[in-house]
Amino acid sequence: MKYQILVALMGFCIALTAFQTDPLQESIQRGKKVYQWNCQTCHAQNGQGEPSLFPPLAKSDYLMQDRPRAIKQVLYGARGTMVVNGVTYKGEMLAFNELSDTQIADVLNYVRNSWGNQDLQIITPQDVKSQRR
Q1: Which pLDDT does position 133 carry in this prediction?
Q2: Rounded to an integer, what distance in angstroms lies between the CA atom of residue 26 and that of residue 133?
Q3: If we measure between CA atoms, which residue out of 31, 55, 60, 52 comes closest to residue 43?
């Protein structure tokens, strides 16, 4: 009888884990849509950017170096010189502060976990809120 209860509990646990979700993966999936609507025009579908015009997000040392800076750049845009993967870019990125904290967190989780980038620490809406003025 104890064995049957143990087997039943194990089956229940296995079934339960199948229904659990990964918050980072969910955020990445939502972020892909935000990226397609707001970022893809300049940074391209594959995150490669446009040489001499728009810096790449793919395998981007600049993007991955500083999480708060990445959040602020989506919120407030960027202007001036930036060096990405050893290449200097001069230009302007528009601000996307009309996006919600969740949308910004999602798009950053997407780009920081795509095209050769990997950041398994999720950016949360609270992280974004803390960077808003």
Answers
A1: 82
A2: 27
A3: 55
Q: Give residue-wise pLDDT tens across range 81-103.
A: 999 999 999 999 999 999 999 99
Identify the sign of the CA torsion 82, 96, 32, 21. Answer: positive
Q: Is the dihedral of CA 120, 37, 66, 123 positive or negative?
A: negative
Cβ-contact 73, 104 below 8 angstroms: no
Structure tokens at 37: 């609507």
CATH of 23-131, one of 1.10.760.10, 1.20.1260.100, 1.20.120.1200, 2.40.10.10: 1.10.760.10
